[in-house]
Design a protein that fits this description.
Rossmann fold, 7 helices, alpha/beta, five-stranded parallel beta sheet
């Protein structure tokens, strides 16, 4: 089964009908068929933060509901936010100070390298800049 990394922008697009990337994300998701989605607790924190200021309580509870669906799905792996992953992300963040990469992106890049994941579901071009294939 194909393994893909799920970034915040992808998760927001899939879960929020009002997101500008919702339609292309849904179309690609239908084309992909079954795949294994890997993401991190760092990404999930950023995902929840995105919904914190959107449309009040309903938005927040919808985001939590989606997170719980992901957590329960057999083809989804949410990697814990360990201290080792955090500090490896900090090291990359520091080493690539010439890039606008966020710390969450850096932890994602580290994990993708560690798990040999070459493709990311994202609308964030930083993943391509870091050498990964981005979908869509």
């Amino acid at each position: 089964m194909r393994t893909l990394f799920g970034d915040t922008s992808w998760l927001v697009a899939i879960s929020a009908q009002r997101d500008q990337h919702h339609a292309p994300a849904m179309a690609l998701s239908a084309k992909l068929g079954r795949y294994r989605l890997v993401t991190t607790e760092f990404v999930m924190a950023e995902f929840l933060n995105t919904f914190a200021a959107m449309h009040g309580t309903w938005s927040r509870m919808s985001a939590v509901s989606y997170l719980r669906q992901l957590q329960a799905h057999p083809d989804v792996m949410i990697v814990p936010a360990t201290s080792d992953l955090f500090w490896a992300g900090v090291a990359l963040y520091e080493a690539r100070s010439d890039k606008p990469w966020s710390l969450v992106d850096c932890t994602s890049f580290v994990l993708m390298e560690q798990q040999d994941i070459a493709e990311a579901l994202t609308f964030d071009r930083d993943f391509a800049q870091a050498g990964f294939t981005i979908l869509p």
